[in-house]
């Protein structure tokens, strides 16, 4: 996963350590975000590999973009960025599922 | 789902939805409120600062039991480069008043409290229920909602959409367009815990006094954005946000930007030895007045972030949310008392009332600012560097005489930006600010 930011000075920044602090109720087998099958991602879809604040998006060895949305914080950035290309199907998780902010 | 008919359905239990539901329920209307989270607040993210005035107009004695963190006695505005900040700090004993003006809050706790007041006032709240679409009659009037709770429906005379920035229900029903990447900011935030006496000594505070820091500069790597650091009782909220279209073009990650801000030599000592207990991200609608969608129609009203009610320059949003929610609620109560239809023509009263408040006045005043900040990236990179260099030249005592130092400062300014460029930026800012 492309979840390490090498631009910041100092030790590498991993998003997984942050997400580990959060509470989730994962709707197993029913991801609320789906990527449309594609040969090559658009610039917008590709940007999600660094843009997603939960690091949900990554490139596979064929260059396609994949998503694992268990750590999603439901911000909606991927939806807004790909609205024009329609590559991401985005819904809220079913009522009660998804991230549960303790502080918000 | 719920057989009986309601006077109003409120979608969402954030500040705008709670303000609307409370205002209507208190006046005896039958209100159903739907929230997709397990509890109100579980999906909501904010810095967060509570503006007392907006809440006082809804719950005058909120200070008696609301979960408030610290009242703000000091505001720090920082312009940062990689090693420095130039700050404007305002601290006043006058803010230690009987009814303080601003408080830091923790949203999950605050929203739960506010929701309790809504239910005490008589509204019916259903959590873990996501609204999936609006229901319309043959004339296109909104008459209710469909939810994901067994596909259940609920009907009412009016639906108030306080569904937040993503606002899927209104968008998919064609009430408003999709958000644009250049008019929405992505903010990430962490909650860092420290003993309260450590916070008080680091920020020079006593009791429930609090400090807020708003910062801009090279921390956003040339992108339009700001960072913040707010003191709570036993925690510090720290975050950074940038316009989404800038983040698309950058190769930086949001959490990388946040980490770099936390590692800045001016910030790191404030957070030292703290324990991070949550990481959140949220969109902020920053398009302002020009991005504002239709605010009402036949059988519906939009309030809060879903209606783009955010003053990005002043970092205000929750007060606009509460005020639009309250006024939407008051408009519905007023129309119901007069036994008038909740039609588009009659609900125009909502916008008329908003025009008389700070909400529309401020959004109109700053309508050109989003475009200015988007098109003048110098504000976020070059100027902070120049200001810091000028301050350093001025304050460093190194045997150079003061007249030469003045010349060095002006030379550096002119090298960074041509004189017409400097004047042009100032004129454009002044025009946008007016």
TrEMBL record, chain A:
Keywords: Electron transport, Iron, Iron-sulfur, Metal-binding, Transport. InterPro entries: Fd_FixX. It comes from the Bacteria. SUPFAM superfamilies: 4Fe-4S ferredoxins. One of its GO terms (molecular function) is iron-sulfur cluster binding. Could be a 3Fe-4S cluster-containing protein. This is Ferredoxin-like protein. It comes from Nitrospirillum iridis. The lineage of its organism: Bacteria, Pseudomonadati, Pseudomonadota, Alphaproteobacteria, Rhodospirillales.
From TrEMBL, chain B:
Coiled coil: none annotated. InterPro entries: ETF-QO/FixC_UQ-bd, FAD/NAD-bd_sf, FixC-like, FixC-like_C. One of its GO terms (molecular function) is FAD binding. It comes from the Bacteria. The keyword Flavoprotein applies. Keywords: FAD, Flavoprotein, Oxidoreductase. Its cofactor is FAD. Residues 207-283 form the ETF-QO/FixC ubiquinone-binding domain. Residues 370-434 form the FixC-like C-terminal domain. PANTHER family: ELECTRON TRANSFER FLAVOPROTEIN-QUINONE OXIDOREDUCTASE YDIS-RELATED. Belongs to the ETF-QO/FixC family. Part of an electron transfer system. Could be required for the formation of a functional nitrogenase Fe protein. Probably accepts electrons from FixA/FixB and reduces a quinone. This is Protein FixC. The lineage of its organism: Bacteria, Pseudomonadati, Pseudomonadota, Alphaproteobacteria, Rhodospirillales.
């Amino acid at each position: 996963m492309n979840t390490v930011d090498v631009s910041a000075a100092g030790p590498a920044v991993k998003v997984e350590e942050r997400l580990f602090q959060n509470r989730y109720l994962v709707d197993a087998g029913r991801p609320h975000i789906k990527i449309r099958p594609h040969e090559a991602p658009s610039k917008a879809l590709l940007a999600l590999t660094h843009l997603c604040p939960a690091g949900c998006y990554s490139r596979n060895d064929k260059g396609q973009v994949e998503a694992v949305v268990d750590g999603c914080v439901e911000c909606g950035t991927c939806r807004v960025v790909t609205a024009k290309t329609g590559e991401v199907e985005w819904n809220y998780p079913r009522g009660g599922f998804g991230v549960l902010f303790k502080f918000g | 789902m719920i057989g009986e008919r309601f006077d109003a359905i409120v979608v969402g239990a954030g500040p705008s939805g709670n303000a609307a539901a409370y205002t209507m329920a208190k006046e005896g209307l039958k209100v159903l409120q739907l929230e997709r989270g397990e509890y109100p607040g579980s999906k909501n993210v904010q810095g967060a600062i509570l503006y007392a005035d907006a809440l006082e107009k809804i719950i005058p004695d909120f200070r008696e039991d609301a979960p408030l963190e610290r009242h703000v006695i000091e505001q720090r505005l920082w312009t940062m480069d990689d090693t420095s900040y130039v700050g404007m700090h305002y601290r006043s004993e006058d803010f230690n008043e009987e009814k303080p003006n601003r408080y830091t809050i923790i949203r999950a706790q605050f929203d739960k409290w506010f929701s309790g007041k809504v239910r005490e006032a008589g509204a019916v709240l259903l959590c873990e229920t996501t609204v999936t679409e609006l229901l319309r009659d043959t004339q296109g009037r909104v008459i209710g909602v469909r939810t994901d709770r067994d596909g259940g429906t609920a009907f009412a005379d009016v639906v108030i959409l306080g569904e937040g920035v993503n606002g899927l229900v209104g968008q998919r029903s064609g009430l408003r367009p999709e958000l644009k990447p250049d008019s929405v900011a992505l903010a990430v935030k962490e909650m860092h815990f420290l003993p309260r006496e450590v916070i008080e000594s680091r920020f020079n505070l006593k009791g429930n006094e609090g400090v807020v820091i708003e910062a801009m500069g090279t921390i956003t790597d040339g992108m339009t954005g700001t960072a913040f650091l707010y003191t709570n009782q036993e925690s510090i909220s720290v975050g950074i946000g940038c316009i989404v279209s800038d983040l698309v073009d950058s190769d930086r990650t949001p959490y990388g930007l946040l980490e770099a801000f936390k590692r800045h030599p001016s910030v790191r000592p404030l957070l030292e030895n703290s324990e991070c207990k949550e990481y959140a991200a949220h969109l902020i609608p920053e398009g302002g007045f020009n991005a504002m969608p239709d605010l009402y129609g036949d059988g519906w009203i939009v309030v809060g972030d879903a209606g783009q009610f955010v003053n990005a320059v002043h970092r205000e949003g929750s007060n606009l949310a509460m005020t639009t929610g309250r006024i939407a609620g008051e408009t519905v109560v007023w129309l119901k008392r007069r036994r008038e239809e909740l039609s588009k023509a009659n609900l125009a009263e909502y916008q008329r009332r908003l025009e008389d408040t700070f909400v529309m006045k401020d959004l109109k005043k700053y309508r050109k600012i989003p475009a200015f900040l988007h098109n003048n990236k110098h504000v976020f990179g070059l100027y902070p560097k120049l200001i810091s260099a000028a301050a350093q030249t001025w304050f460093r005592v190194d045997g150079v005489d003061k007249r030469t130092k003045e010349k060095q400062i002006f030379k550096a300014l002119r090298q960074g930006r041509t004189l017409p460029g400097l004047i042009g930026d100032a004129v454009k800012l002044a025009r946008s600010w007016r």
